[in-house]
Amino acid sequence: MSIVVNDSSIDTDKEGYLKNLSDWNEKVAIEIAYQENIELSDKHWEMINLIREFYTNFELSPAMRPLVKFTATKLGKEKGNSIYLMQLFPGSPAKLLNKIAGLPRPKNCL
Fold first, then answer.
1. What is 64-84 written as a DSSP string?
2. Per-residue pLDDT tens for 35-86?
3. How many CB atoms lie within 10 A of CB 8?
4. Sign of torsion, CA 71 73 77 78?
5. Sign of CA dihedral 42, 46, 49, 55
6. Which residues touch 26 (CB under 8 Å, ≥6 apart)?
């Protein structure tokens, strides 16, 4: 499978996660979000940058619980809760956020 960004085909797995993390950029994120019916706002970008920081620090894609805890630590409890994340990334926030951020699917997410 693949997505097309700027006339370039980018390989994804069957769930839409990038096969090559180095293929990610903001335009790729916008296209993945578009396919998920999400228009990225500053709040979304704040979370995308945060989850990429988590991945850089811990070399893994966070599932929901670690994501909420990390968000609360970095951005405060107002944003570090599952309700806030569900509003931005409906359904399974950790899976969707990792996908848009160009990171692998979290291992602990169903």
1. HHHHHHHHHHHH-TTTSSHHH
2. 999 999 999 999 999 999 999 999 999 999 999 999 999 999 999 999 999 9
3. 11
4. negative
5. negative
6. none
109 carries an active-site annotation: yes
How many other C-beta atoms lie within 10 A of the C-beta of residue 78?
A: 9
pTM: 0.94
| Amino acid letter, 102 | G
Q: Which of 5, 60, 86, 109 is catalytic?
A: 109
71: Cβ contacts below 8 Å, ≥ 6 apart: 47, 50, 79, 80, 84, 85
Structure token digits, residue 53: 């920081």
Token digits for 103?
A: 């990171």
Cα–Cα distance, 26 to 21 (Å, whole number): 13
Q: Which two tokens stand for residue 61?
A: 């894609």
